Amino acid sequence: MFKKKTAQTARQGRRGPLASVALILIGLVATGGAYAAFSTGTANANTDLSSPAVIEEGQKLFAANCATCHGKQAQGTENGPTLIGVGSASVDFQVGTGRMPMQMSGPQAEQKPVQFTDEQTKALAAYVASLAPGPAIPSQSMLEGGDVANGGELFRINCAMCHNVAGASGALTEGKYAPELKGVAAVHVYEAMLTGPQNMPVFNDLNLTPEEKKDIISYLTYIQENPSAGGLELGSLGPVSEGLFLWVFGLGAIVALTVWVTAKSN
C-alpha cells in the first residue's frame, strides 16, 4: 500500500513532456528578446560611422532616397545643395528630425515624422561623412552637465532674437520662422548650432565653445522642466500675447465698468 501510494505521488509530481518543451521555449523567447533589445540599443548608441559596412549601407540608402535631389555622388543638383563637407552632424540633424527627405518645396524644410530608423540615419550620416571632412555628431558627454545660468545668458545674447527668450519660436521674413525648441533632443540642438541649418547661422567652436553649447542645452532643458515662476505663460511669446491679453480683458473690463457706472447713475 505504501509503495503504491509513493509511485502514484511520483507520477503526479512529474512534468509532462509538453510542459518541459513549453518552459524551454518561453526561456528562449525571453532570453532572445532581452538580448535583441540590448544589442539594438547598444548598436544605435555606438554605431561606428567609420565602418565600411555602415558606409556601404548608407550609400545604398542615399542612392535610393536622396540622390534624386542631391546627385548620385552628393554633388548637388538644381533641386538640392551639395552634401560634400557637411559632415555627419548635418545629416543626423536633417534626417533625424524628419526635415529630410523634404516633403514639398517651400521657404524652409518643415519638421515632420522621421522616415528612417536611427540605424539608417547613422548609416546615411556615415556615408556623407566619408565623402569629405565635416562637423561630427556630438558625443553624449558633450550634451550634459552644463552651467544653466551661463547658458541662459548665452541664449539671450545669441538665440533669443529669433527663437524667443523661452525658445517658443519666432517669425522671420518671407514665410520663414525660427522653430520652437521645446521637446527638441539635446543632440539635435547641438547639431543645429554646429551646422546652421537653413536660416540659422553657424556657431562653430570659435563662436561658441563646446562648453558654451553644453551650457545653452542645459538652459533649454531647465526651462522645459520648470514651469513659469511668474504665473500664466500666455504661450511665452512676450509682449505680443501679454499686450493682447491686456487689450482684450483689461480694456474690456474698463468699458464694462464704465457702462455699469453709467447705468447706475441713471
TrEMBL record:
Heme c 1 binds at residues 66, 69-70. Its EC number is 7.1.1.8. Heme c 2 binds at residues 159, 162-163. It is found in: Cell membrane. Its main location: membrane. Pfam families: Cytochrom_C, Cytochrome_CBB3. Binds 2 heme c groups covalently per subunit. It comes from the Bacteria. One of its GO terms (molecular function) is quinol-cytochrome-c reductase activity. The chain crosses the membrane at residues 244-263. It catalyses: a quinol + 2 Fe(III)-[cytochrome c](out) = a quinone + 2 Fe(II)-[cytochrome c](out) + 2 H(+)(out). GO terms for cellular component: plasma membrane. Keywords: Cell membrane, Electron transport, Heme, Iron, Membrane, Metal-binding, Repeat, Respiratory chain, Translocase, Transmembrane, Transmembrane helix, Transport. It is a multi-pass membrane protein. PROSITE patterns: CYTC. PANTHER family: CBB3-TYPE CYTOCHROME C OXIDASE SUBUNIT FIXP, CYTOCHROME BC1 COMPLEX CYTOCHROME C SUBUNIT. The cytochrome bc1 complex is composed of a cytochrome b (QcrB), the Rieske iron-sulfur protein (QcrA) and a diheme cytochrome c (QcrC) subunit. This is Cytochrome bc1 complex cytochrome c subunit. It comes from Aurantimicrobium minutum.
